[in-house]
From TrEMBL:
Name recorded for this polypeptide: MaoC family dehydratase N-terminal domain-containing protein
Ranges in a coiled coil: none
Family, as annotated: Belongs to the enoyl-CoA hydratase/isomerase family.
Domain Peroxisomal multifunctional enzyme type 2-like N-terminal: 18-147
Species of origin: Haloechinothrix aidingensis
Record GO biological process: fatty acid beta-oxidation
PANTHER family with a match to the protein in the record: ENOYL-COA HYDRATASE CHSH3 (PTHR13078:SF59), PEROXISOMAL MULTIFUNCTIONAL ENZYME TYPE 2-RELATED (PTHR13078)
C-alpha cells in the first residue's frame, strides 16, 4: 500500500546535520530573483557577502542545498511516485535571524497524513537547532499527492485565511525569469518537473512549472521589501498555500493587507489572472 497512515503519522524521520556558507545564501537569493534591481540599495543585503542578511526562506533549502538527485517521496508508511506530487503548503518560523553561515541539526517527523479522497496530503515538520542547541527555525510543509487518497485516513482540518473586505494596502509586481526554475534547481531541488517537458507532460502539465519554494521565497522577499523596509531579519514567520502553478517568465502580483505586524498575502500570475499563493501570512518580529 503506498500510504499506511498508522505507520506514517508521527513517524520519526531522524536527525541530520548540515552546514552552509555565504555562497549558499548568495546563490539562493539569486535563485529567488535578488539583484534584478541593482539600483535599489537594499538589494545588496541579499547579493553582497559584506553585511549579508539571510531571508528566512533560506531555511527551506539549507539542509538540501547540495543535493544533485531528484527528491524522493519515501517515508515510513509513504511511498509515492514523484510525478504525482506538488508542493501544497509551506511554513517557516524563524526563531531568530538566520546567520549567513552556520552548522545545524534538523529533526523531522511526519506530523499528519490526510485523506482528501482524490488526493493525500502529507505534512512534515522539522525542528532545526544551532551548534549550541539554540532553536533556529521550525518548518512545516505539506505535499499534495494526486490520486493517492482513499486509503481510509482522516480528512484533516479545512483551514483558510480570510482577507479583509477592503482593497489591499500594497500591490507589488515581481517578474520571474524564463530561466528561473533552471537557476532555482541549483539550490538543491532537481525535481524534473521543473525542467523536463516530457516529465511535466506525464505529470499533467503543459510545460515545466516553477518550484513552489521559489515562488514562496520571491513573494517573501517582495513583502519584506514592501512593508519591512527590505530587512529580512524582521521576518518572524511566513506561511502560504500553493493555490496554482507558476510558469517561468510570468509576473507575480502580490497583494498585501497590513493587519499590524501580521501581513495577509495573496498572489496571482498576472498573465493568466490565476491564483498562485493563498492563505499567505507573514509576521514581523
Ligand atoms: C520529500 C520531498 C518531496 C518532493 C516535493 C515536491 C517538490 C517540488 O519540486 C514540487 C513543486 O514545487 S510543485 C510546484 C508548486 N506547487 C503547485 O504548483 C501546486 C499548485 N496548486 C494546485 O495545483 C492545486 O491547488 C492543488 C492540486 C494543490 C489542489 O487543487 P484541487 O485538486 O482543486 O483541490 P481542492 O478540490 O481545492 O481541495 C481538495 C482538498 O485538498 C485541500 N487542499 C487544496 N489545496 C491544497 C494545498 N495546496 N495543500 C494542501 N491541501 C490542499 C483542500 O483544503 C481540500 O480539503 P478539504 O475539502 O478537507 O478542505
Amino acid at each position: 500500500m503506498p500510504i499506511d497512515p498508522a505507520t506514517a503519522i508521527g513517524a520519526d524521520l531522524g536527525e541530520t546535520s548540515f552546514s552552509w556558507g555565504s555562497s549558499d545564501v548568495l546563490l539562493y537569493h539569486l535563485g529567488i530573483g535578488a539583484g534584478t534591481h541593482p539600483d535599489d540599495p537594499t538589494e545588496l543585503r541579499y547579493t553582497y557577502e559584506r553585511d549579508l542578511r539571510v531571508l528566512p526562506t533560506f531555511a527551506t533549502v539549507a539542509a538540501t542545498m547540495h543535493e544533485t538527485e531528484p527528491p524522493q517521496v519515501s517515508f515510513p508508511g509513504v511511498e509515492i511516485d514523484l510525478a504525482k506530487v506538488v508542493h501544497g503548503k509551506q511554513e517557516i518560523v524563524a526563531h531568530r535571524p538566520l546567520p549567513a553561515e552556520g552548522k545545524a541539526r534538523a529533526r523531522g517527523r511526519i506530523a499528519d497524513v490526510q485523506d482528501k479522497g482524490k488526493a493525500a496530503v502529507i505534512v512534515q515538520e522539522t525542528e532545526v537547532t544551532g551548534e549550541a542547541g539554540e532553536p533556529l527555525w521550525t518548518a512545516r510543509s505539506s505535499i499534495f499527492a494526486k490520486g493517492e487518497g482513499g486509503f481510509g485516513g482522516e480528512r484533516g482540518p479545512s483551514e483558510s485565511v480570510e482577507l479583509p473586505d477592503r482593497a489591499p494596502d500594497e500591490v507589488i509586481d515581481t517578474a520571474t525569469l524564463g530561466q528561473q526554475a533552471l537557476l532555482y534547481r541549483l539550490c538543491g531541488d532537481r525535481n524534473p518537473l521543473h525542467i523536463d517537458p516530457e516529465f511535466a507532460k506525464a505529470a499533467g502539465f503543459d510545460a515545466p512549472i516553477l518550484h513552489g519554494l521559489c515562488t514562496y521565497g520571491m513573494v517573501a522577499k517582495a513583502v519584506t521589501g514592501a512593508v519591512l523596509g527590505g530587512d529580512p531579519d524582521s521576518v518572524a514567520s511566513w506561511s502560504a498555500r500553493f493555490a496554482g502553478i507558476v510558469l517561468p517568465g510570468e509576473t507575480l502580483r502580490t497583494s498585501i493587507w497590513d493587519t499590524g505586524r501580521r501581513y495577509l498575502v495573496s498572489t496571482v500570475a498576472v498573465e493568466r489572472d490565476a491564483p498562485v499563493l493563498a492563505d499567505g501570512v507573514l509576521t514581523a518580529r
